[in-house]
Amino acid sequence: MTQTAILPTNKDEAWRYADADYLKRADVNELTVWRESIVPEGQTICETTHLATSGVTRLRVHVEAGGRYEHFALNCAGAYARLEIEVTLDEGAHFEFGAVTIGGGDTTQEFVTRTIHAQPHGTSNQVVRAVQWGKSSGNFLGRIEVVKDAQKTDAGMNFRALLLERGASANTKPELEIFADDVLCAHGAAIGQMDEAAAYYMAARGIPPEVARKLMVQAFIGDAFAAMANADERDAMMEQALTQLEGADL
Amino acid sequence: MLKIDNLSAEIANEDGNGKAILKGLSLEVKAGEVHAIMGPNGAGKSTLSYVLGGRPGYEVTGGSVSFNGADLLDLEPHERAAAGLFLGFQYPVEIPGVSNVQFLREALNSQRKARGEEPLSGGDFLKLAREKAALLKLDMEMLKRHVNVGFSGGEKKRAEMVQMGILDPKFAVLDETDSGLDIDALRIVGEGINTIMRAEDKGVLLITHYQRLLDYVKPDRVSVLADGRIVATGGPELALRLEEEGYDAVMAEAAA
């Protein structure tokens, strides 16, 4: 088999918004290898990822019964960065995902999740926010699968994008594949611009535009990290995200 | 203190054509004065406040506004605030995700920075906020909540006055601050305006439909705004006459 035969391209559904040039140049291992891990029964594992440089990271996590896997991610990489997480949930297990893409220029920043509710009573909650300017794009492809026996599954997925400039974009593709009949699956998505009325209200109180923008973005992305139990870690994530705005030529 | 001279302004329509609202409005408010502006619906009262505040979508087509000697219209909205102008909104804006405390601390410290003053520390700011909230009988817990989110109409108006108390402006333009208030809230807001803004070196432009707020905030001057111009100016008795005789009678007399 040749390398090119297995490399993903934009024609693959799961890679449709990816940076095509990056995929052509990328190392085959980077695009196809998974880092695999297990959350043992009843335990909680919380991970944070800060994507600051280009690359593809793929995680495959198996959460055993009653376990909890939390992942909070910030994607502010320069050219193309993608975090892909595949989670399989056993009986009563939970997956919590909070993630933010934030950037300008020509960058493509994306999150891809596949959540497999393999047994009953599993829960999952995903909150993703994208803040883009320049010609950048922020993407979220979220797939939720509920197998036939995974009754009482409760899965939620929410994506919102804030485009600070014309020319920036955001893409989302929620996919639900449900084979059980007693489940709750909710998903929502919205793409919008800065609230001009709020921006003017801030200006009328003396807040200059760059500070107003920072406040609005802070308010916007806050939901993604709200579930982080460690307040110091949460504040650090927020600060890292908001720092991206400082170099922004808006 | 505030001198508006022959001001004309239009609002930009969707089709790109402007609609003239203010048509040569002149008005002066001296330091130490409360000047009430009354007038029928559609006269341009709110537009006047928007133009003074620099709200996007309103274009000045003629005339000038000087504020403490500076050209007000030359300043960006946030610079006008830092120069000491406060605009009380008829419809205060909700900002989900930003607490009142953070909003006001950023606002106060942005203004102080623009004036070359040191920022207020978190502790000093909270002390100030608590004092002003008490003045308007607004629960301090409300200030920890997001800006105006879930506030009733009356709470929003009281919160506006708490903001005014914290920011301590030189001049306030209050656009129908009395609308949506019940009797008790009206008294509290009226007394708040007096406490915060009644001073030798401050001024207030009070835009209102009704006499009732003027029972609490006694105006020094009253002007009638109709069709984009000031058509009559007088003392507090003018407001009482308007209430009794209606705008048409007073305006007909002014025109005669």
Features:
heterodimer; A: 250 residues; alpha/beta; six-stranded parallel beta sheet; 6 helices; 44% strand; B: 256 residues; Rossmann fold; four-stranded antiparallel beta sheet; 38% helix
Describe this structure in words.
Chain A is of the alpha/beta class. Chain A has one domain. In chain A, 23% of the residues lie in helices and 44% in strands. In chain A, the strands form two sheets. Chain A has a six-stranded parallel sheet with strand order 1-3-5-7-9-11. In chain A, helix 5 runs antiparallel to helix 6. The N and C termini of chain A lie far apart (47 Å). Chain B is α/β, with parallel strands linked by helices. Chain B has a single domain, classed as Rossmann fold (3-Layer(aba) Sandwich), CATH 3.40.50. In chain B, 38% of the residues lie in helices and 29% in strands. Chain B has nine helices and twelve strands. In chain B, the strands form three sheets. Chain B has a six-stranded mixed sheet with strand order 6-9-10-3-11-12, sandwiched between helices. Chain B has a four-stranded antiparallel sheet with strand order 2-1-4-5. Chain B has a two-stranded antiparallel ribbon with strand order 7-8. In chain B, helix 6 packs parallel to helix 7 and helix 8 packs across helix 9.
